[in-house]
Amino acid sequence: LQIIITNRSKPTYASFFFRVFISQAFFDLTYVPSVFVCQIAPQFPVFHNILLATNGTLWVEWAYAYPYFYLWGQPFGVLLISMHRMLAVAMPFSRATK
Asked: In which domain of life is the source organism classified (predicted)?
């Protein structure tokens, strides 16, 4: 991921595929902390004080928003990558595959 982000201005990494790849990496990297904070932490009494301390902050709203964020964002990115690969095979010289 670091190689792609640092070289994204080069022509080989400036395609639509790598832009969608970077956005999907963002989803994947933020998914694990979100699941831990919003799903796993409420099940263990050790973390109740931490959750009560964050009441009124962004974490409470994020606990309701993150399932929709990931349920819509990740499949949409996978769909875009799949469509791009299909276009790359069906129409290799199209502007959409560049």
From this structure: Eukaryota
Tell me if the pTM is above 0.85.
Answer: no
Structure tokens belonging to residue 72: 């819509």
Q: How many domains does the chain have?
A: 1
pLDDT tens track for 23-62: 788 877 877 777 777 777 667 777 777 777 777 666 667 7
Q: Which residue has the tokens 């263990």?
A: 44
Pairwise CA distance, residues 93 & 2, whole Å? 28
55 three-class SS: coil
Q: Which domain holds residue 37?
A: 2-97
Tokens of 39: 């799903």
